[in-house]
Amino acid sequence: MELRDLSDHVEYRAGRGIEEVARELGRDPSDFVKLSSNENPHGPSPKAAVAIREAATEVHRYPKAVHADLTAALAEQWGVTDEQVWLANGGDGALDYLARATLDPDDEVLVPTPGFTYYGMSARFHHGRVSEYAVEEGGDGFEMTPEAVLDAYDGERVVYLTSPHNPTGARFTLDEVETVADETDEDTLVVVDEAYGEFADAPSAVSLLDERDDVAVLRTFSKAYGLAGTRLGYAVVPGSWGDAYARVQTPFAASVVACEAGLAALGDDEHVAKTTESVEWGREYIHDELDARTYESHGNFVLANVGDAASVTEAAKRDGVLIRDCTSFGLPEHVRVTVGTRAETDRAVDTLNEVLGE
């Protein structure tokens, strides 16, 4: 037999890990600093780490109770009903659930370019089609505007807004999100991806759900909470969607370990504060000290124009600093530097300045 036609599908390529690069270069992993995947440099929430260890003895049980407990805790945090919180295996899992709930075959979605490739991947997995709107560099940097979205909009079923946006760090205001929702068809869902929302000094689009049924919000535990390896994310959806989650989710959408970690992390305000304060310092430091043009960022990373991203990334790798070559985003002159610890960020800036000066 033959597989279905996968010619329109693309591979999601995550940043390479330290161990992988160390093996390639025949060096010790401790020689490297990884600032290429927007991970939390301070590790997981300490409270979550304890919960993960304690959960190890319960992994023979299905996660029904703790799944409900985490759902209720998130609903309370956001001031929504339990039914509006859709837990998932990472933010990408939540995207799949939204696609299952909204897309009929050949429905179109509108995604940003550059942007997170999984928006389009998920749509295609569910037999949808993909259109794009451009996030372009202007005089003041990369711009996220309702006009750019609406100029490209042609009745798509789902419109994705990444705020803050990866890899540029730009964001939409709540008024701008509402403008997009107001100006698109009543059957168009506006998905606001707030994976980096904890790092932005701005209110969440969840507040719009009090009066709208055409907006959904994506959140994750991977970044500020430091739980990328547990794969835990969720969507907050309109209140009218009721029992749709039960119809589209996989059985037990998040594991016992992930749910226990998430519950504990939600109560670890100290770790989140440490992380966000570190990011604020690191963004400013990179902007001030890096000998390249940088752009205002509301995420836990900074985009920089270094002229030749591939060669700069390769040279930095040889010096033990892993950053993201943004050529795969369609930005061959740019690199993305995740904010690390103070020592890691300082080393990355020094290394890049040396490379750029050669």
Automatic annotation (TrEMBL):
Domain Aminotransferase class I/classII large: 31-352
Gene (name only): hisC
Gene3D superfamilies recorded: Aspartate Aminotransferase, domain 1, Type I PLP-dependent aspartate aminotransferase-like (Major domain)
Key words of the record: Amino-acid biosynthesis, Aminotransferase, Histidine biosynthesis, Pyridoxal phosphate, Transferase
Catalytic activity reported: L-histidinol phosphate + 2-oxoglutarate = 3-(imidazol-4-yl)-2-oxopropyl phosphate + L-glutamate
EC number in record: 2.6.1.9
Natural source organism: Halobacterium jilantaiense
Pathway as given in its UniProt record: Amino-acid biosynthesis; L-histidine biosynthesis; L-histidine from 5-phospho-alpha-D-ribose 1-diphosphate: step 7/9
InterPro entries registered for this protein in UniProt: Aminotrans_II_pyridoxalP_BS, Aminotransferase_I/II_large, HisP_aminotrans, HistidinolP_aminotransfase, PyrdxlP-dep_Trfase, PyrdxlP-dep_Trfase_major, PyrdxlP-dep_Trfase_small
Similarity remark: Belongs to the class-II pyridoxal-phosphate-dependent aminotransferase family. Histidinol-phosphate aminotransferase subfamily.
Cofactor(s) this protein cannot do without: pyridoxal 5'-phosphate
GO biological process: L-histidine biosynthetic process
Transferase is among the record's keywords: yes
UniProt protein name: Histidinol-phosphate aminotransferase
Residues bearing the modification N6-(pyridoxal phosphate)lysine: 223
Gene Ontology terms for molecular function: histidinol-phosphate transaminase activity; pyridoxal phosphate binding
Key word Transcription present: no
